[in-house]
């Protein structure tokens, strides 16, 4: 049963990351002609297109994509619960879904920051994936750079943001009981 749980967890988490990236790309107004952005759009479009006909966007907020992210997590926990024979508790699954989407978004940002740091050492800035990462992470790093400007050619904003993300994760584990279990 552990192998099946791993497989279900992995598949749903990977698709959740793609859906979160779609929400994030739209919120950051990233380049949708970038090959990486095109992959994200093509992977989510078959499900989001019918949802958009029913659920309109609210300004820059793509409510259909947000709903899809919540559905993906709810479906994952429903399947995992059924696999172990646990009773379905709909309010708990909804709460876990909301918490999981936020946590996964934070984890995705964390790993994107690490990738961006590594790419900055080896790449010359011409990689299309790196350009999208800059567009996605710059709204978080820009305000930190205004407070702590680069010193001696060393940009500490990335490190500060990673510390903030870890602090928020530890803080939320203390106050949101479902946070630790997702």
Order of helices and strands: HHHHHH
Radius of gyration: 18 Å
Low-confidence stretches: none
Total tally of structural domains: 1
Classify the helix fraction into a percent range.
over 70%
Distance between the termini: 19 Å
Can you summarize this structure?
The chain is mainly α and 182 residues long.
Topology:
Layout: H1 2-28, H2 35-54, H3 63-84, H4 90-122, H5 128-147, H6 157-175
Helix pairs in contact: 1-2, 1-3, 1-4, 2-3, 3-4, 4-5, 4-6, 5-6
Would you write up a description of this structure?
This protein is mostly helical and 182 residues long. The chain has one domain. The protein contains six helices and no strands. The chain has helices at 2-28, 35-54, 63-84, 90-122, 128-147, 157-175. α4 (90-122) packs across α5, α4 (90-122) runs antiparallel to α6 (157-175) and α5 crosses α6. The radius of gyration is 18 Å and the shape is globular. The two termini are 19 Å apart. The model has no long low-confidence stretch (mean pLDDT 87).
Features:
single chain; 182 residues; mainly alpha; 77% helix; 0% strand
